[in-house]
Structure prediction request, 342 residues.
Amino acid sequence: MPELPLWFEIGSFVALGIILAIDLLLVLKRPHEPSMKEAGLWVSFYIALALVFAGAMFAFTGPEYGGQFLAGWVTEYSLSIDNLFVFIIIMARFAVPRKYQQEVLMVGIIIALILRGIFIMLGAIVIEQFSWVFYIFGAFLLWTAWKQAQDEGEDEEDKENPLIARIRKILPMSEKLDGGKLRTEVDGKKVFTPMLIVFVTIGLTDLLFAVDSIPAIFGLTQSAFIVFTANIFALMGLRQLYFLLGGLMSRLIYLKHALSVILAFIGVKLVLHAMHVNELPFINGGQHIEWAPEIPTYVSLGVIIGTIIVAVIASLVSSRASQAKLDARLEEDSRKSLSDVE
Prediction:
């Protein structure tokens, strides 16, 4: 399998850094609620950009690395789409004005990139030194898949994180938001606004997402470069996708089940890989288990894309999806967006 050219890696990071910086400047310069057309164009642009990058991977490094990137990107993008519902609930709970939600989401994406970058570096080092960690990653993903399939935990969103509650007690804070400001003045005193809590909540949520998603993509590739770029492309355009999908997320009723199947598949793949390169002395005498198959990248890509397509089609044609009710907070948020003229 060919090595990734150093110039390709450096050039990719420089180009992606410039694109992210431009995106951030646009948000800071003109905070607003994007229209469906604007959001759709941006999402289409970022998806096309990811596909162009995948094409470059195929051209410069061959089908193996190109397939690994595609499989990793599709997996991370799917997990990110599922997590959008949590972001919607956070925005609605804290009554963040629609025109400032882009800024909040951009900060959340930056936090996610930093956290995932740290996780990726640590994961790459651990994998390089200890092949048995694949057993742990595989078991963790199987457990996550089972938990996801239970479709539980929605009520947890209404419980305030203990860290958030402690921040409220320690820091002087206003009762209401003041636009997009972190600090405001109340009775002549400078205090923080609840926007600080929004940023912390988004950051903690991103941390939980990274714990789930990083082991999943390491099950598809051991290249830290591919892992990181797949995560960047999955997060790019997520802000616009948030406004494009909005309440439609509740209609994709089988998405969680599809992600459960994907995580379980990658978990099995990781365990099989761990068995194939086994070095643990209490398993098979420390010898590799040769009969354990290595699942090819093209098979992984086919399973991932096929599962998502089936889930989306099943959701769209399901009578349950058409009768699904929006979360009350989402309906209230939509009403506010229509009346918010500030």
